[in-house]
Input
Amino acid sequence: MIIVVCVKQIPDPATPGALDSATNALKRDGKLILDESDGYGVEMALQLVTTAGSGEVMVVSMAPNGEMSGMRTALAMGAAKGVLVSDPALAGSDALTTAKILAAAIQKMGAVDLIIAATESSDGYTGTVPEQIAELLGMPSITFAKKVEVSGTTLKVNRQSEAGYDEVECQLPALISVTAGVVEPRYPSFKGIMAAKSKPVETFTASDLGVTPTGWAGAGQKIVSVTQAEARQAGDVVEDDGTAFEKIVVFLENLKVI
Amino acid sequence: MTINNIWVFAQANSDVPTTGTLELLAKARAIGASVTAFVGGDATAIAGALGEHGATKVYATGDLAGKLSGPAVSGAMKAIIDGGDTPNVIMFPQNYEGRDIMSRLSVKLDRTVLTNNTDIAESADGVIATTPIFGGNSLVATAFTGSGPHLVSFRPKSFVAESAGGAAAPVVAAPIPDLGIAGSAKVLAVHVEASSGPKLDEAAIVVSGGRGLGEAGKYSLVEELATLLKGAPGASRAIVDAGWVPYSYQVGQTGKVVKPTVYIAAGISGATQHMVGMKGSKNIIAINKDKEAPIFGVADLGIVGDVHKVLPQLIELLKSRG
Output
């Protein structure tokens, strides 16, 4: 079973985000890490290949600046190889261009049974790229997967819904987006980290893939302003001296909700 | 550009349009000359309510027959557009169905998408959508630069639903075209997770728990308090990811947006992801051990204390009052 996982390398969410003063885009010039949301997809892929008994997991990513440290994390977890689309011309690309790039890159990776992505990235969270890739490749897709099973060429997914979940089925090849918590991502072992350094990563530019226009020019959108939202004022903060619960009750009484 | 023709992707539960649908219709009629609702399913029962809220036409695909709405509804929309009815703007709710449909349609039309918005307006720069970032501390206004249809989605509660007193809208069939292999996924069964009490995104009081509860078993304190206050229990992403409670409990960027009269955050530090979903609450009470926790920056009443002490005391006192 051949699985491609789409992964995004993002600025470390532990450090506060900032916007580039010239473009108003999120700054991505520092070290990028594997988006935590993508760990679930990589783990899911590794487990599915193990269950299938044969096959391999590949990862694909797009980054304007050649960064691949986040991708190495996925390789250290056990993915066999990676494809990176890197091109300064990609800076500012919208979700649709990103999907076009990833779909074109996946087509260069040969026959694929399953494509896995997170439901959305943790930095831009547009949340449309997986379904856009499926449409570009003319594939069935099941988004918001919270349980995934493959038997033969049949894919069965429990898909998150507003009220609970739906059981959805289709034939491979297909695409799924997986929710956080669908599986427990493994930590890369020391051996895995060492092995990842020598795993093959193929790189393409946007023009290698024949996708134009890209970046700001292809985005179909432009940021016109960034303003501060009205800040919410903090109220009283008190240390609990054993009677804080009474303060809560008084607060609720004053609002006439109890 | 003037917004002459605006569509709203409309959803219903048990033959009643969702609140989110009515919110979008209210905004659509404020900015667009003519409002059309697009329903993935049968619209006979809801055409009256959609008309009352401002739709003057309803497109309906008819029963999806187990097809996923992403390919099916986007296919039907594309067919109508190809047939000559081209909207300037299509508004979608930021939820599972809305996201899937707008994604597929964006490829079919080769148009960009703007998601997670809380407002839309027309200006000299064209149609502009506004989205909050960095936990709602900044607002980014983005203009569509190409030609329409502009595809744009909105977070729940961005607008206020309001009746326009309109007449029932005529329903026009929007058949689902042959979708080929891309539309071949089938829904085999639908499971509804049992819940009692008010819905999380409609409750007047929400009590949410986070990592500070320490272990899954302690979440019962949150549920008990929510029940006593006739409210709904919620959760931070951290404990949903940890598997303590189902995803449907999640408040935040990737969960529900809530704006209750009172929001009680118990053992929640206030990650950006969470704040986005609850900062619009009218009153916020936070209980957390760490006095530096960001949640105190938005709380009207902040208690620096142990949830394992404060919650049981609060529950006992409320019980004794009957």
Notes: Chain A is about 25% helix and 30% strand.
